[in-house]
UniProtKB/TrEMBL annotation:
<feature type="binding site">
    <location>
        <begin position="111"/>
        <end position="121"/>
    </location>
    <ligand>
        <name>ATP</name>
    </ligand>
</feature>
<dbReference type="Pfam" id="PF08544">
    <property type="entry name" value="GHMP_kinases_C"/>
</dbReference>
<dbReference type="GO" id="GO:0016114">
    <property type="term" value="P:terpenoid biosynthetic process"/>
</dbReference>
<feature type="active site">
    <location>
        <position position="153"/>
    </location>
</feature>
<protein>
    <recommendedName>
        <fullName>4-diphosphocytidyl-2-C-methyl-D-erythritol kinase</fullName>
        <ecNumber>2.7.1.148</ecNumber>
    </recommendedName>
</protein>
<dbReference type="InterPro" id="IPR036554">
    <property type="entry name" value="GHMP_kinase_C_sf"/>
</dbReference>
<dbReference type="InterPro" id="IPR020568">
    <property type="entry name" value="Ribosomal_Su5_D2-typ_SF"/>
</dbReference>
<comment type="similarity">
    <text>Belongs to the GHMP kinase family. IspE subfamily.</text>
</comment>
<keyword id="KW-0808">Transferase</keyword>
<dbReference type="InterPro" id="IPR014721">
    <property type="entry name" value="Ribsml_uS5_D2-typ_fold_subgr"/>
</dbReference>
<dbReference type="InterPro" id="IPR013750">
    <property type="entry name" value="GHMP_kinase_C_dom"/>
</dbReference>
<dbReference type="Pfam" id="PF00288">
    <property type="entry name" value="GHMP_kinases_N"/>
</dbReference>
<dbReference type="InterPro" id="IPR006204">
    <property type="entry name" value="GHMP_kinase_N_dom"/>
</dbReference>
<keyword id="KW-0414">Isoprene biosynthesis</keyword>
<keyword id="KW-0418">Kinase</keyword>
<feature type="active site">
    <location>
        <position position="24"/>
    </location>
</feature>
<keyword id="KW-0547">Nucleotide-binding</keyword>
Amino acid sequence: MPHPDAGLDVDMLTTPVTEIAYAKVNVALHVRARREDGYHALESLFVFAEDGDRLQGWASDDGAIHLTIDGPFGATLDAGPDNLVVRAARALQAYLGEQRGAAIRLTKNLPVASGIGGGSADAAAALRLLARLWIVRIDDGELMGLALDLGSDVPACVPSVTQMVMGRGERQARHAVDGLDACSMLLVNPGVGVSTAQVFAGWDRVDRGPLDGSSLGVLCAMGRNDLEAAALAIAPVIGDVLAMLAAQEDVLLARMSGSGATCFALFRSDRALAAAAQAVRRANPGWWVMETRIRSA
Ligand SMILES: C[C@](O)(CO)[C@H](O)COP(=O)(O)OP(=O)(O)OC[C@H]1O[C@@H](n2ccc(N)nc2=O)[C@H](O)[C@@H]1O
Ligand SMILES: Nc1ncnc2c1ncn2[C@@H]1O[C@H](COP(=O)(O)OP(=O)(O)OP(=O)(O)O)[C@@H](O)[C@H]1O
């Protein structure tokens, strides 16, 4: 199959391999302490959407990593060495000690720096994609080490299933919760990017207690996103998003994800989801809205 970039002079040795970089959502995010290393100790229930960015890869034998980016948010992102897809590919090359190459096309559907881990999901999807493309088997522990070096959220994004995440992100445990699998979910971003480091720096350092993930009811009633206040101080429009989501019919939960500014809402039915999406789009045509479901574990 010809490569989509006609100008790219790379001898393609394989048919393309595709991976989806599933959007990450923190159903609850409790910040417990600031650690000595500057990171924060978290307890968070991660779920993943069925949708996200798309990575397509072709193997080459020239050792080069060639990234092209398209999609609705492609123009906002550089394809240079700092891109997390390129960094993931370089990390895997260094681990293998071999210079296998690849051309990767990233279709950027998720807003950048928006609390749904787009960059982290891309990095994890690149690791999965290249492991398939280069037909390599990596020990799970080694893979998670490579992933954590790329970002705190990247290890959880490797399997992209519902899990409890602790530490700065280095400890994960699969954690099924009745009612979450395939639950209708709306993601809304008001078009502002917020810096994760800046939001953590604004945390008031008050430990409001552990996360109880025993049921969806408890997660809704007792769960929190402890970064909400700090993110709201940077981007007050997040308050408008949360108010609008919470006011929708048949909403189970409306909360901010990660360090913001994306907020999510869980609904009792696909019908309620569709109605809410329509209402949000009508009232705020400039906001990014994604109708999806929670990916089953
Ligand atoms: C807020 C979350 O999205 C929740 O899922 C993550 O904890 C952030 O994960 P991430 O984007 O992969 O973050 P990283 O790229 O590792 O870190 C970006 C910056 O966020 C801050 N950071 C991140 C994670 C963490 N547990 N404590 C922190 O204080 C640090 O200042 C760090 O320099
Ligand atoms: N492929 C990529 N996609 C998105 N961002 C990337 C990518 N590569 C590098 N970055 C950089 O990483 C930073 C964080 O991006 P990302 O979209 O993962 O943030 P986020 O959604 O806020 O993450 P989190 O949910 O972990 O807080 C951005 O500032 C962006 O410039």
